[in-house]
Specification:
By secondary structure, the protein is of the alpha+beta class. 31% of the residues lie in helices and 19% in strands. Helix 2 links the parallel strand 2 and strand 3.
Amino acid sequence: MKTEKSDTERREQTIHALRLCYDPEIPLNIYDLGLIYDIDVDDPDRISIRMTLTSPHCPAAEILPRQVKKAVAAMTGVKEVAVTLVWDPPWSINRMSEEARLELGWL
């Protein structure tokens, strides 16, 4: 049975997994970098993620979505992960966490 608490816990677990994925060009995890637009817990065993990249011409375009899928799929009990790459709205530094901007000296 799906509950709000289990969805919240699963979302937090997903965020933790995403924070283990790093952009190869910017030394920050992709979650704090602001590349993750949406995490949808369809069921505790199915998670959908909408993400973007810093640029449509990003050299990591093929690497990062696979890395995201692999990291989330490694979570206990996850059977299906859908990762959708989107370009709207475009990424900007405003999507980054304050801590990430501070770490890069962009604050």
